[in-house]
Amino acid sequence: MKNRRALLFLASLCAVLVLGNLFASGVSGKKFSESFPASACPPTGVGMSSLVSTASGNTPFRNVSGKISSFKKIKSSRYQIASDPILIDGRQVTPVIWQSVPGSWAGSAICSSPQGEQWFVGGAGDITSKGRLLLVNSGMSEAIVDVAVWSESGVQTGKVISFPANSFTQIKLDALAPGQSKLTLRVIPRAGRVSAYMVDERGRGLRSLGGDLVSPVSATSKDFVIAGIPHQIIKATPTSHILRILAPGGVSANVHVDLISKDGTFAPVGLDQRSIAPGVVTEIVLAPEIAATAFSLRVQSDQPVVAAVFSPLSLSGPRDFMWNTATPPLVPFTIAVTGLQPTLVFSGDEISLKIDARLSSGKVQSSRIAGQDIVIWKSPTNALSLMISSVSNGVYGAVIVTSTSGVGGFPLTPGSVLTRAAIPNSNISVINR
User: Fold this and answer.
1) Taking all residues of the chain, what is their mean pLDDT, rounded to a whole number?
2) Contact, 7 vs 63, CB < 8 A?
3) How far apart are CA 140 and CA 67, in angstroms?
C-alpha cells in the first residue's frame, strides 16, 4: 500500500513538471514586435514659418489633412511645413520643429508621439493673447479630448473637444479662459491618436509682444528640475523672470526652490519656503543677481505641483520671451538639429555623458561632457543630429536656440520611445475545435 501511494505521488509530480515545462515553452516562444511610434509636428499658423529638423532626407512622413495618404520620403533634413501638421516616422531620431513670425518671435518644440496626459504651464487669455492650443489627431478614428483649465481665479470651466480622424483643431486661449492672464491646462485624450501643443503668442494692437511654443509635462510632481533658463544682463542690470506654479489638489503646497548656476546654488529670496494656495495659478518674480547666461531651478514640494519659468528676452530687434518647463531625467536618445546649432544646458549633482554629433560632411564629432551642478555645451554649426549616451544618473537637460527672429527651447527628452507588442501565435488546434 505504501509503495502504491509513493508511485502515485511520483506520477503526479512528473505530470506537474511536464505540464509546467509545456506552459513555459509556450510563453518563451511568444514573439514580440518593437517599434518607435511616429511623431506628429504641429501645423503652421497664418503669417508663420515652420521648419522641421529630421535625421535625413530619407525620413518617411505624411500630411495630417483629411484623407490618409501613404508615407513618402521627406527629401530634406530641414523640411518646411506649408500649413497642415505632418506625421514623421523618425524611428529612434526625435524630430524638432522651429516656428517663427519673421522679425517678431520664434519658438521650438519636439515633435512627439501621442501622449496620455499633458500639462501646459503657460499662456494667457487676456486682451494681449493671440495664443492657441493645437490638437493633432493622426489616427484613423475620431478624437475626443478633455481640457481642464486653471487660472489666477481658480478652476475654470473645462471643455470636451471632438474632431475627425487624420485632422487637427485649434482652440484660442482667450476662449478657454476669457480675461485671465495666468493659465495652466491639462489635456487628456479619451479617444484618437492625439498630440497636443500650445502656442503662446502675445501682442498689443499691431505691436508684437513675443511668443513661444510651450512644452508640456506628463504629470504633476513633488521634486523636479526646470533646466536651461536663459538669463540676460542688459545695461549692467540682470533681467527678471517669473515662476508660474499650480498645486491642482485640494491642499496648499509648501515649496522650496534652489537656483543652480555657475555662480553657485542658492534659494532665491522668498523661495526657501513658500506656501502655494491650492487650485490657483500663482506667479513669483525671480530677480537673480548672477552673471551666468543660463541657470536651472530645482523645485521640491510636499504636494504635487506643476511649474514653468517665463523669461522676457531682448534681441537686437524683436522683443521675445521663452517658457522653460519641467525636464524629465535625461536618457540616451538621438535628436535632429539640422539648421539649429543649439546650446545644451545640463544640470545635476554629478554630470557625465557623451555626445556624438553627426555632421553634414558625414563625419562624427564626439564630446565627453562632465562637471558638477551645471554644464553648458554648444553644438557644432553643421550638425545634423546629436546622439546622447552614457548618461549618469540624476542629469537633466534642455536646449536653447537663438535666431534673428527670437529665442526658443525645449527639454531634452525623446519625442517617441520604443514600444513592444505581443504577436499572437497561430494555433491550428484551436481553429479545428
Assistant:
1) 90
2) no
3) 10
Q: Where are the domains of the chain?
A: 35-419
Q: What pLDDT was estimated at residue 431?
A: 44
According to the model, what pLDDT value does residue 25 have?
Answer: 45
Q: What is the SS3 assignment for the chain?
A: CHHHHHHHHHHHHHHHHHHHHHHHHHHHCCEEEEECCCEEECCCCCCCEEEEECCCCCCEEEECCCCCCCCEECCCCEEECCCCCEEECCCCEECEEEEEECCCEEEEEECECCCCCEEEECCCCCCCECCEEEEEECCCCCEEEEEEEEECCEEEEEEEEEECCCEEEEEEHHHHCCCCCCCEEEEEEEECCEEEEEEEEEEECCEEEEEEEECCECCCEEEEEEEEEECCEECCEECCEEEEEEECCCCCEEEEEEEEECCEEECCCCCCCEEECECCCEEEEECCCCCCCEEEEEEEEEEEEEEEEEEEEECCCCEEEEEEECECECCCEEEECCCCCCEEEEEEEEEEEEEEEEECCCCEEEEEEEEEEEEEEECCCCEEEEEEECCCCCCEEEEEEECCCCEEEEECCCCCCCEEEEECCCCHHHHCC
Residue, of 3 and 324, whose pLDDT is higher: 324
CA 174 to chain centre: 23
pTM: 0.89
Report the amino acid identity of residue 239.
T
Phi then psi for residue 21, to 5 deg, are -65, -40
Reading the block at residue 352, the C-alpha cell is 557625465
Query: Given this model, what pLDDT does residue 69 score?
Result: 78
Cell numbers for 211? 511668443
Whether the predicted pLDDT of 134 surpasses 60: yes
How many whole angstroms separate alpha carbon 47 and alpha carbon 203? 14
292 vs 135: CA distance, rounded Å = 37
C-alpha cell of residue 163: 474632431
Q: Cell numbers 510636499 correspond to what residue?
A: 302
Q: pLDDT tens digit string along 82-103?
A: 999 999 998 899 999 999 998 8
Question: What is the distance between the terminal CA atoms of the chain, rounded to a whole angstrom?
Answer: 41
Tell me how far apart the alpha carbons of residues 114 and 192 are, in angstroms, rounded to a whole number.
Answer: 9
